[in-house]
């Protein structure tokens, strides 16, 4: 009787290159790939946090992994252009592809788009009028505003231009912005000021002291200065290099809105502004109070 042979399919483990190890299930394999991606992104982010240049040892310490493991990931990143290695120092630096990714992200850094969720949340938390302003050619200009159902009647709306000296929003730009044009505009505003306003800021030395105060505390606050009976606080929105690209402001009736340093409203405002700044790439964003 002729012998019959039955074809036996080769074990699936042969495809993995090791017949002594079981084949990982599909979900397990996917999870490993995800974990590998997370590790790689963690190394890349650590390199950015270390200033964009670091040794292998420093990177391994930053991500709490072995130098051998980090080196394997860096080799792959070098092949993809995300990282390069300096021949002289042997330090790893961000590569051209990482720079291209960063440039694309920076082009999307819009303070209005990034700040809208925080603006909505802040208005709901404080129950006050809140807005985002940017520096326009005529001065600080409101671009996005949210008001409570029973808003305090103030003559500001989207498109309104605010003064540098007499508004919390303007003081943020004046104290933290750059350029001689801001100082010239402030001087012109002071020349047109009312006696009551000049009593608050009587001379150039007082303006300098105000700017120093805003820089020190990280926000500006006014009470009954621009409009009688209205208090306001404003915090800067910064981009990746620290430049002020906007201001987040909250205002309300002086009797019901506490714009003083250390108050709950100012704390929430500064936390919201720091969150938006972080989204714009400002790594040192930390809320002031």
From TrEMBL:
**Pfam families given in the database record:** HTH_IclR, IclR_C
Molecular functions per Gene Ontology: DNA binding; DNA-binding transcription factor activity
The record's PROSITE patterns line, in alphabetical order, gives: HTH_ICLR (PS51077), ICLR_ED (PS51078)
Composition bias, kind Polar residues: at what positions?
Answer: 17-26
Q: Where in the numbering of this chain does the IclR-ED domain appear? A: 97-282
Q: Start and end of every HTH iclR-type domain? A: 34-96
Task: Enumerate the UniProt keywords alphabetically.
Answer: DNA-binding, Transcription, Transcription regulation
| InterPro entries associated with the record | ArsR-like_HTH, GAF-like_dom_sf, HTH_MetabolicPath_Reg, Tscrpt_reg_IclR_C, Tscrpt_reg_IclR_N, WH-like_DNA-bd_sf, WH_DNA-bd_sf
What is an annotated GO biological process for this record, any one? negative regulation of DNA-templated transcription
**Region Disordered: start and end of each range?**
1-30
Q: What is this protein called?
A: IclR family transcriptional regulator
Q: Which organism is it from?
A: Ottowia oryzae
From the broadest rank down, the organism's phylogenetic lineage runs: Bacteria, Pseudomonadati, Pseudomonadota, Betaproteobacteria, Burkholderiales
């Amino acid at each position: 009787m002729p012998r019959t042979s039955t074809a036996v399919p080769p074990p699936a483990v042969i495809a993995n290159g090791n017949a002594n190890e079981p084949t990982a299930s599909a979900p397990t394999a996917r999870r490993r790939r995800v974990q590998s991606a997370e590790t790689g992104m963690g190394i890349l982010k650590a390199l950015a946090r270390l200033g964009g240049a670091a040794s292998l040892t420093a990177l391994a310490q930053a991500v709490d992994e072995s130098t051998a493991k980090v080196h394997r990931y860096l080799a792959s990143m070098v092949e993809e252009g995300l990282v390069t290695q300096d021949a002289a120092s042997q330090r790893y630096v961000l590569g051209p592809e990482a720079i291209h990714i960063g440039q694309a992200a920076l082009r999307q850094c819009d303070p209005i788009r990034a700040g809208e969720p925080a603006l909505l949340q802040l208005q709901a938390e404080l129950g006050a009028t809140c807005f985002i302003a940017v520096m326009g050619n005529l001065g600080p200009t409101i671009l996005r505003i949210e008001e409570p159902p029973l808003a305090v009647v103030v003559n500001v709306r989207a498109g309104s231009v605010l003064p540098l000296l007499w508004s919390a929003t303007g003081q943020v730009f004046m104290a933290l912005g750059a350029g001689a044009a801001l100082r010239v505009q402030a001087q012109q505003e002071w020349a047109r000021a009312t006696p009551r306003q000049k009593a608050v800021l009587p001379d150039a030395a007082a303006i300098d002291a105000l700017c120093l105060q805003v820089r020190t505390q990280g926000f500006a606050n006014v009470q009954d200065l621009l409009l009688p009976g209205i208090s306001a606080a404003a915090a800067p929105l910064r981009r990746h290099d620290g430049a002020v690209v906007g201001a987040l402001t909250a205002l309300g009736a002086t009797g019901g809105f506490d714009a003083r340093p250390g108050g709950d409203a100012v704390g929430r405002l500064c936390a919201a502004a720091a969150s938006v700044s972080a989204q714009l790439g400002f790594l040192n964003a930390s809320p002031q109070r």
